[in-house]
Structures are given as C-alpha cells and as structure tokens.
Automatic annotation (TrEMBL):
GO cellular component: RNA polymerase II, core complex
Name of this protein: DNA-directed RNA polymerase II subunit rpb3-like
SUPFAM superfamilies: Insert subdomain of RNA polymerase alpha subunit (SSF56553), RBP11-like subunits of RNA polymerase (SSF55257)
InterPro entries with a match to the protein in the record: DNA-dir_RNA_pol_30-40kDasu_CS (IPR001514), DNA-dir_RNA_pol_insert (IPR011262), DNA-dir_RNA_pol_RpoA/D/Rpb3 (IPR011263), RBP11-like (IPR036603), RNAP_Rpo3/Rpb3/RPAC1 (IPR022842), RNApol_insert_sf (IPR036643), Rpo3/RPB3_RNA_Pol_subunit (IPR050518)
Keywords on record: DNA-directed RNA polymerase, Transcription
UniProt superkingdom: Eukaryota
Molecular function per GO: DNA binding; DNA-directed RNA polymerase activity; protein dimerization activity
C-alpha cells in the first residue's frame, strides 16, 4: 500500500471538462484494477429509478404488452434524489409505499385523427405530492402544446380541450413509446423502483469508457529524409488533424514565412495538391505528436511495409487514465462519478475488517498446529 505521506503515489482525479451530459476526467497514479473497478461500479452499481412493473388495463395498439413495457422501462427517470428512496426488497413496507415506489399512469386514446404518437410526456403521476421524479426530459404535454399554439399564432377557434389528443405540433425531445391509430387506446399503471445495472440494463445511469495515456514519439529528422512518394502515402493514410505540410506557392515556390498549413487528404479534397508540383519539389511534412493511437499505429504499419523501422513509437503510461462518462439523463454526470466513488469507498472500507479477520484466523490455526506438534515446514504463513 502506498505511503500516505507520499502524495505522488496517491490516486488523484482532475476534471478536464463538464457539460450537462458528459464529464471527462483524468485518473492519476492508478492502475488497471482501480480504473476498471470505477468503470464497473458506474455501469452496474450506481442506483437509479426505472419503470419496473407495468399493469396493462387496455392495449388496443398493434404492439404487444411486453414490447411496450420494455420501452417504458428504458425511459430515464429523474434520479437526482435517489438516496431518498429504498430498494423495494429492503423496504420495511408490506408491498409498496412512497419510499420504495413511484406510481404513474399512461392513459391515451386517439379520438380525432388517423394516428397519434404516444410519448413519455403522456406519462402522469397519480398522486399530489410535490417534487416527484418524472421521466426525463420533464414537461407537460398539454402545457407545452398550449404554449406552442399561442407562440405560433394558431387560429383562435382552436379547441384547447383537445390538446391531450393532439400531436400536430411536434414536441421537443419527446421519447416515442408507440403510435396508435384512430379509436385505439392505451391504459396502463406504471410502477418505478430503485435498482442497479447489475439487476437490469434499464437501471444503468449512463455509459463510461477509459483509455490509458499515451505519447507518440516521432523522429522528425527521419521523416524529412523520406522520399516524396512515401510522404504522400503517409498523408493519404492519416486524418487531417494528424499532420501539417508546407504548401507551395505556384509563383514563389514555398511560402516565405515558412508556415505550416493544414492540407486535406485525397478523399476530402480532390484539389488539395493542385498547388504542389509533385515532380519538382519535396514536401515538408510535419506529423502531429498528439495523434490518436489508432492513427499512429496505421502510420507505423505503413512505414514498416515501406521498410522503415522505429521512426514512430507509441509509449503508454499505465498509471494515467482518461475517463469519459455520459449520462442517459437520469442524473448529472458528475453525480454518477461521485456516487461511484462513494460506493467504491464503502466496498474498500467493508473489506478491511474481513482481511484482518482472515489473517487472525490463519495465525490462530498456525498456533494450534504448533502446539499439536504438526510440522509447518514448507508453509509460509508470514507470521512475522
């Protein structure tokens, strides 16, 4: 275990960017085990709310009950206050209560048109309690339609009472559930519960990925010595952000200010090399050391095929990990990371006494065996 006084060995996190949907951060002084533990906890153990039980009273749509129930389960529900709710199996109530379940109703009928799209905005809470978690993005279909009608100067004779069954006006960010035809109806009772991704994918709070830090080492002096046709092959196998070349001027040769400008590859711009005399001038090619591992490996493979070795090398830092966490909308991305760290800390804290108990039990067994005269030769119990 690292010395707590040695700050260079302590795990550290630096947030590099944060938006409403995505957080990226760098994990320093770590290893694959810790990085993968964080990833797995985010995917499988950070709790959220999701629709778990669907009671179908009427479904005359073309879709089966199970199909609609599956779609309902994947709709994100506001889980920012997830700590206020209990897991249903651990709740002290007999069946359901406000601490372990949230009940909604989905009741829609297509009356006055040929087709109606049912979206998550049609899901309504059955009670009167304030601040109840609702599907994300939150909104009221009737209110949103009313605002849109007023803002769009619809005819004053429009019947505002028909808004619940009107989908003429497109609702922003609406999650479609099912489309129903004229005279078809849905009537369902929905029960949302607290769960984790280990139980079902509908409780996963978002997506997470990480990559280890890398550095691309390029011997630029050897790149400069490559033949012109080989440089063109390299350019054609890389994306535009991986290189710069000095563009030639038809009248004056190379630019006087010796500036490197981006030049698109063949696929992106057919006229990219119109101002370069392929037969007379050499290309001053500069490769970007910040290119991705994939692009660097493509370049290495090409150079190997051409007979050049060790011009480009990729070095990995296996103590530095770049994370990207994207939420599905049920909670902010920074909350996902924070809860994952709390869960990991609790796991490590609960593991410590078990390790100590296991060690003491081995020591006691060894003492008893010695008293009984049993030889411990060849058994390393590390009792010192």
């Amino acid at each position: 275990m690292a010395n707590s006084n040695d700050k260079s060995k302590i795990h550290q996190i630096e947030i590099t960017s944060l938006t409403d949907d995505i957080i990226t951060f760098v994990l320093y002084n770590s290893n694959y085990g810790m990085a993968n533990a964080i990833r797995r906890i985010i995917l499988s153990e950070v709790p959220t709310l999701a629709i778990d039980i669907v009671n179908v009273y009427e479904n005359t749509s073309a879709f089966h009950d199970e199909f609609i129930a599956h779609r309902l389960g994947l709709i994100p529900i506001d889980s920012r206050n997830i700590k206020q709710y209990e897991f249903r199996e651990l709740c002290k109530c007999r069946e359901t209560c406000s601490k372990c379940t949230i009940q909604y109703i989905l009741e829609v009928q297509c009356k006055n048109r040929d087709k109606l799209e049912v979206t998550h905005y049609d899901i309504e809470f059955t009670g009167n309690e304030p601040n109840i978690p609702m599907p994300i993005p939150q909104g009221n279909k009737k209110k949103m339609n009313k605002n849109n009608i007023i803002n769009n100067d619809v005819n004053d004779n429009y019947n505002m009472n028909n808004l619940d069954n009107d989908d003429n006006i497109k609702l922003e960010n609406a999650i479609p559930i099912v489309s129903i035809a004229k005279n078809q109806m849905l009537k369902m009772k929905l029960i949302a519960t607290k769960g984790i991704g280990k139980m079902h994918a509908k409780w996963i709070p978002g997506n997470v990925s990480y990559r280890i830090d890398h550095k691309v080492i390029i011997k630029h002096n050897l790149i400069d010595k490559l033949p012109r046709e080989h440089k063109l092959l390299i350019i054609n196998n890389l994306t535009n952000d991986c290189y710069t070349i000095q563009k030639e001027n038809k009248n004056n040769g190379y630019n006087d200010n010796n500036r490197y400008d981006n030049v698109n590859g063949y696929d992106d711009d057919e006229n990219a090399y119109d101002d370069i005399d392929i037969t007379k001038k050499d290309i001053q090619l500069k490769l970007n050391e910040n290119m991705s591992v994939v692009m660097a490996q493509n370049c290495i493979d090409l150079l190997n095929e051409l007979g050049y070795k060790d011009i480009i090398k990729v070095v990995f830092d296996e103590t530095k990990f770049h994370f990207k966490v994207e939420t599905i909308g049920s909670m902010p991305p920074e909350q996902i990371v924070e809860m994952a760290m709390e869960i990991l800390e609790d796991k490590l804290r609960s593991l410590e006494p078990k390790i100590k108990a296991s060690f003491y039990s081995i020591e006691e067994v060894a003492t008893q065996l010695k008293e009984q005269g049993v030889s411990l030769y060849g058994i390393d119990l590390d009792l010192d």
